[in-house]
């Protein structure tokens, strides 16, 4: 009897965690990066819960997008300086020889510099590669990508891995990226899970609206 009620309780707890994860996830995708920073500063436990849920989601995928970025960096000189926006558990930094600046809202690893990715403590034109791996969560995309443009040197690389279903109009998105000072170098749209986009910085971001720069929130279904 008590075994059965313990199992029931575990199942209820699991459901509750799932529901909280989905709620947090929705908040992150429907608010600005500043809202996300405020949310996790007020409730660091929420961040850890979010990460547990995130891990559970990506474990179902055939390949982790961050592994694609690792492979990409290993083909290029280890002397390139990297900035990982929304680094999570710092898998990227731990997997390559490059110097990697790791930014996230709460430190899952001692390597993390805690900050909002819309405002990172790096000098202008100081990095060779900027990475957003499943991290373009805030609604202020233009500001966030503008920050990546600021810290990248001219000709530097921007790598974006994002959930495929978030793209409403990939063409319009890529066009908007040109206004933000990024030329498309390659795009791998072959996975049904995530797209991998490589850009090169052509110059500073041009101000003004970039209407195509939109991504759908990535909402998870109850399972
Ligand atoms: N890049 C990692 C983690 C992806 S999860 C990987 O591929 O495994 C997305 C990460 O972005 C989370 O760790 C989340 O905390 C972080 N994030 C979301 N909004 C952020 C913000 N405004 N500033 C910094 N990090 C943010």
TrEMBL record:
GO molecular function, one term: methyltransferase activity
Keywords for the protein's UniProt record, in alphabetical order: Chromatin regulator, Methyltransferase, Nucleus, Repressor, rRNA processing, S-adenosyl-L-methionine, Transcription, Transcription regulation, Transferase
Location, primary (coarse class): nucleus
Entry's Gene Ontology BP terms: cellular response to glucose starvation; methylation; rDNA heterochromatin formation; regulation of transcription by glucose; rRNA processing
An example Gene Ontology CC term for this record: chromatin silencing complex
UniProt EC number: 2.1.1.-
Protein localization: Nucleus, Nucleolus
InterPro entries hit by this protein: RRP8, RRP8_N, SAM-dependent_MTases_sf
A Pfam family of this chain: Methyltransf_8
Family: Belongs to the methyltransferase superfamily. RRP8 family.
Function: Probable methyltransferase required to silence rDNA. Essential component of the eNoSC (energy-dependent nucleolar silencing) complex, a complex that mediates silencing of rDNA in response to intracellular energy status and acts by recruiting histone-modifying enzymes. The eNoSC complex is able to sense the energy status of cell: upon glucose starvation, elevation of NAD(+)/NADP(+) ratio activates SIRT1, leading to histone H3 deacetylation followed by dimethylation of H3 at 'Lys-9' (H3K9me2) by SUV39H1 and the formation of silent chromatin in the rDNA locus. In the complex, RRP8 binds to H3K9me2 and probably acts as a methyltransferase.
Subunit structure and binding partners: Component of the eNoSC complex, composed of SIRT1, SUV39H1 and RRP8.
Name listed for the protein in its UniProt record: Ribosomal RNA-processing protein 8
Recorded name of the encoding gene: Rrp8
């Amino acid at each position: 009897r008590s075994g059965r009620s313990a199992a029931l309780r575990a199942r209820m707890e699991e459901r509750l965690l799932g529901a909280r994860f989905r709620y947090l996830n929705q908040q992150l995708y429907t608010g600005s990066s500043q809202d996300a920073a405020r949310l996790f500063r007020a409730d660091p436990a929420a961040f850890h819960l979010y990460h547990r849920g995130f891990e559970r989601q990506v474990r179902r995928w055939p390949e982790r997008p961050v592994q694609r970025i690792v492979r990409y960096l290993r083909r290029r000189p280890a002397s390139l300086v990297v900035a990982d926006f929304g680094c999570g558990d710092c898998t990227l930094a731990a997997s390559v020889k490059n110097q990697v600046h790791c930014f996230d809202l709460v430190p899952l690893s001692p390597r993390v510099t805690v900050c909002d990715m819309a405002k990172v403590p790096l000098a202008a034109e100081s990095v060779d590669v900027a990475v957003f791996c499943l991290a373009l969560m805030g609604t202020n995309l233009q500001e966030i990508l503008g920050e990546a443009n600021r810290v990248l040197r001219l000709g530097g690389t921007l790598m974006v891995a994002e959930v495929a279903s978030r793209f409403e109009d990939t063409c319009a998105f890529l066009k908007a990226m040109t206004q933000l000072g990024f030329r498309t170098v390659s795009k791998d749209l072959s996975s049904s899970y995530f797209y991998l986009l490589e850009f090169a910085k052509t110059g500073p971001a041009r101000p003004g609206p970039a209407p195509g720069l939109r991504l759908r929130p990535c909402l998870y279904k109850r399972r």
